Amino acid sequence: xxxxxxxxxxxxxxxxxxxxxxxxxxxxxxxxxxxxxxxxxxxxxxxxxxxxxxxxxxxxxxxxxxxxxxxxxxxxxxxxxxxxxxxxxxxxxxxxxxxxxxxxxxxxxxxxxxxxxxxxxxxxxxxxxxxxxxxxxxxxxxxxxxxxxxxxxxxxxxxxxxxxxxxxxxxxxxxxxxxxxxxxxxxxxxxxxxxxxxxxxxxxxxxxxxxxxxxxxxxxxxxxxxxxxxxxxxxxxxxxxxxxxxxxxxxxxxxxxxxxxxxxxxxxxxxxxxxxxxxxxxxxxxxxxxxxxxxxxxxxxxxxxxxxxxxxxxxxxxxxxxxxxxxxxxxxxxxxxxxxxxxxxxxxxxxxxxxxxxxxxxxxxxxxxxxxxxxxxxxxxxxxxxxxxxxxxxxxxxxxxxxxxxxxxxxxxxxxxxxxxxxxxxxxxxxxxxxxxxxxxxxxxxxxxxxxxxxxxxxxxxxxxxxxxxxxxxxxxxxxxxxxxxxxxxxxxxxxxxxxxxxxxxxxxxxxxxxxxxxxxxxxxxxxxxxxxxxxxxxxxxxxxxxxxxxxxxxxxxxxxxxxxxxxxxxxxxxxxxxxxxxxxxxxxxxxxxxxxxxxxxxxxxxxxxxxxxxxxxxxxxxxxxxxxxxxxxxxxxxxxxxxxxxxxxxxxxxxxxxxxxxxxxxxxxxxxxxxx
Length: 677
What we know:
Blueprint: E1 19-20, E2 27-28, H1 51-63, H2 65-72, E3 79-80, H3 90-106, E4 111-112, H4 114-131, H5 149-164, H6 175-201, E5 204-206, E6 212-214, H7 236-251, H8 255-276, H9 284-287, H10 292-324, H11 330-356, H12 365-388, H13 400-432, H14 446-459, H15 462-471, H16 483-503, H17 509-528, H18 531-537, H19 539-567, E7 575-576, E8 579-580, H20 582-603, H21 611-636, H22 644-649, H23 654-662
Parallel strand pairs: 3-4
Antiparallel strand pairs: 1-2, 5-6, 7-8
Helix pairs in contact: 1-4, 3-4, 3-5, 4-5, 4-6, 5-6, 5-7, 6-7, 6-8, 7-8, 8-10, 8-11, 10-11, 10-12, 11-13, 12-13, 13-15, 13-16, 14-17, 16-17, 17-19, 19-20, 19-21, 21-23
């Protein structure tokens, strides 16, 4: 086993622990709240006072012959010793430490003196102290991409502390020096933790009021053109430094602290990016109390933020984890990413449950479907992460992504069930609409307008609704290839039955047919005006509706105009044995005039809002009635005396009749016009 793989006992600046000085004095408590906060800039020193003071005092002691000789005593064949004068030479001491470590690894132990241990610890502590405030302390060495000198020293002292814990050199007379090495290691790692955190947080920039707060490195939101291509959260050189620091922390046994710092910092950045998109984590308890207008706006924002999180945020974080925790530490990065993904997404998914459990209303369908599509589209993304993060031999190691996959599936099911139930509420609304008053003028029923516009928008989600009804079909097997199309047809049949029932509320059968024509024409135009709806219902339904409309038209002409046309026929009563029966003729004209006055007054108030249908009705009426009246006038008007008698009975010319017909169905009730002269 690698002698450097076992970490020494440690006290973390991030984990729930305290650091004590060697004299048993002060303890250091570190703020470990979720936001991490700003870690202390100064650490308690093992011997009290400043780092520089501690090191200087130790150098003076080691420079004094007796003390230095005492520490350097016991040297012999096979041992390595430290120098006794001047500042500690880190390079030389590192070589001695490396020889000791190599001997441990190879099974040929090499002794190390207490003086070497003490001087090496002092050299590392001096390097840490001198690194504070230095701008390039984390720069990677140019030669072969070697890590920064500070991290190399920290990694070496960590390996030394680990090796001493298993070596005879770590006990007995070297115990004090070993304790010194361990204390410096803790201090060095606390410094690295702070630097790691600060680098993750990003540069500090001045803010309003003169305060200095970390300018958190967040995920950039999509640009104005809508492309989800944000810049990486850190430049390459920063990622290199983070990777070097992470390598040192993990190698030193500080994997938990390193993981927690990275996880919390990146989660804060992730949340900040979502806030930049307008999503501010609504309280799920408030969702049930929201007015629909407010909730609708929140859903729009949630959907945008969720898609960004899945398609951009997680991919960015996955790439960052892979780059910072590369090589032999890749499993650490996979674990961090799994935990980060689960933490961020679970709160967003909880919002879907809150929406799905609100009171069902038809107007909520389309926003619920938007959420359903967003969650549905997240599944393959999560699957791809699972596949990428499960190399051979590591199956089941990180359950975060597997848990997230289950939560996504549950959220999809909740939303799908809610969408199916909302759509079925439309059917219930149609069944419950038992009108008691007819629509004035036979106009298009408000329910018809609502349902047809609703179905038009619903059919724009046809593939999604087909999925929803396949997954949440509660009825029996109707044999339909598309369960949503079958559901749509059921709605149309319900609406047709409702309109038939409403048409019977009219006392005038002619107006009943106008009502059915108006509504049937509206339905047909809405369907033919929407490619999606037309495709869902099919041409057979459109042909059937057209046939119904022609029948309504025929029924109207029969009911409204058959009596008028009967008055214009010579049925054997007007002419007897070649002689016109003038009293009967006078009565015919009186009845005709009264009938036309009634038609003009009543049908002028009827409403046919579709201009094409209105024109078709007027043309079809004029084509039958006007020629019949012209013929009637040509045969019988001459039997009245010119003057007052003609004016009394022949009140309308053929042109007057055409004018009356042209004024029907415009919603205006007026008196019959006077005869044109």
